[in-house]
Amino acid sequence: MTSLTQGNIGTPAPQTSRQSLVDACQNPDEYPTNLPGASMSKRTLKEYQNLLESRGKTLFAQNGASTGNSSSSWTLLQEQDDQADFSSGYTKSRCSQLEELEFQLYEQKKQDPRCRLIFIQSGISNRPLGGSREMMSYLLSYHQVSPRFLDLLFLFCGGRHLPPNDNNFIHSAHFYQDNVINELCHPTRFAIPALGRSGRLLRLCYNLWAAEKNEADRGQPGWFFRQTAMYHSLDVETAKTFWINIKANGLMRRRMQQITEEEARPPSKSPKNELVSKALLNSLDLHMAAVEWSTECWPGFIRDIEDELSTIMVALANVPVGKLEEALRVNTTDLLRQIAPPVTQQDDITNPLMKVAFKSDMTESTCMPGQGLPSQDCRGIPLNRLQATVQNVTGAASEPRTSKVPVIVDPFLLLEDFRFEQLQRLTRMGARLRQTSLIMEMNLNVMLELAEFYMLLQQAYELPLGLRVKIKSGVLVFQQRVECCIKMMKLQKSRVEMLLGTVASGKILCESIMQLRNTSISQLFLIAAHQTAADMRKIADKTERQTASMHIITLVTLIFLPGTFVATFLGSGLFQWDDNDPELRFPRWKPEYFNLFAGICFPLMFLTILGWLIAYIFGTNNRRSANAMWRKKEALRTWGSVKEAMVGFWAWGKKWLTQRTEEDRIPP
């Protein structure tokens, strides 16, 4: 036999249980420290109280004001014991303020209903819950809810304004049980007969996650991860059950309401074991509503991800990488031939033949003797390549050299459909799938613990033997249904793991394509640089030849220039020989001719030098004026920034002084 009780029940206060409940309801803000006989230390309860007080300001709607919206109010379904048997005994009501909740729970002066369900919703999954912190504290105090339920309550995103599909949000799912059924020796220790409570309870709470799809007319379309939290307690003596369900939309409320309408309800005067067993088996159906909700969504969710991933992977697999490599292929032979020193047109035919013949000789000299084929260390060119080289060279010599306009085709048009956005989509999809795998793993753990909890009831010595016999078949059916859901979720989880591997392969392929594109672009730049270097080499060779010619011209000029100058000067008429005087040894000087030459040549030289000097001075002044204007503009711009800063500082100081003056005027 096993025990279902967790922890040690604390020592009760020296007062009646009803008075303890009254005190707890009168001070709901002290929850959970106001609970009698809590199974936690006072320090832990105080921490829960502080957390509820701090997070309750953003977790619930402000002041619990009624807005007329169903999502801002709580829905209560209650089945009273005095309803007609085998009839729909559930009454539905709403409350959005603390006074309305107090009237529904306590001020009616009636016992607790046979079954009470409270549904709490919010307008959007990441917005505050309906109601108020005061209402939640009062509800938890009145029904003496286990403090562990607060751990599930704090998982809701009220007030944090997270995106509804945030991939960085870490999800969490838990299962807690806090039973109080070991009071066989003291059955009235926590009993409140006026409310129909025996004090012996099965208490459990858990939360589950699932993916829900929004339609286009209901906000942002797509799949979103959403959770539901459940709290359940069952009195094993009076068969009274209590439920709290928290979910953003009303899906769980509608499903659970439909189950309560169709459940089997025995007459209120039936034996105790009959009432308790029916209440427990009915609660299993409500648990299955949450389990099935967390399981049924994954096939459609994974199918949509598969379709999106398939589109990306097909696009990546069909990228014409081969065509890009073919378009960017470089003939290394031609490249090496262009790197070789330039030769004349006559040597264009002889030099390649000489190189090929030389290489073939080297090949024959380095081959292994006695073998027809060259060894691995041979570096020669085979005969077929030699013949091809000769044909290419002779063909190039025989054909006329004509310039052809090349047709340029952009090879990167082949990658036009490839975008970096695909890598981002794969990254988001991978994060989404990892979240899905985590959610499934946590849901599986919660389902296993839920099934195990009810399986242990068949061996719990705290429950009567007759009750355990009555619930045995129903618990077995419940276990089978949960195991079926677990198998389905494990199957979907294996698909998620496979998709994670596909996403990883897609990211590697995507990064490889990006590296290929970058390498190809670098290759284009290298080819362009090589072409530029080849052009510069041609220019350098041409300049070298022209420089050699200029050197020759300069040398010839230096040799003949003195003689040419002397011959020109003597032949200008400044010196004349007298043919009638054969004995004249030196020609006669003609000063009048020299004066005419000097009167024309020297003024022209002076005017030329003066004109260039004026142009130089004018250009220098213009440059100086432009530089001075630029410095002036820079100085004005700098002064404008400083002035603007000073004006801003003066305005701030004036505003600060005004505020201080107004504060001083306010009386203490």
TrEMBL record:
Domain CorA-like transporter, chain residue ranges per copy: 24-313
Transmembrane segments: 552-576, 596-619
Pfam families in the record: CorA-like
Domain of life (superkingdom): Eukaryota
Protein name: CorA-like transporter domain-containing protein
Gene3D superfamilies tied to this protein: Magnesium transport protein CorA, transmembrane region
Entry keyword set: Membrane, Transmembrane, Transmembrane helix
Highest classification ranks of the organism: Eukaryota, Fungi, Dikarya, Ascomycota, Pezizomycotina
UniProt source species: Pyricularia grisea (Crabgrass-specific blast fungus)
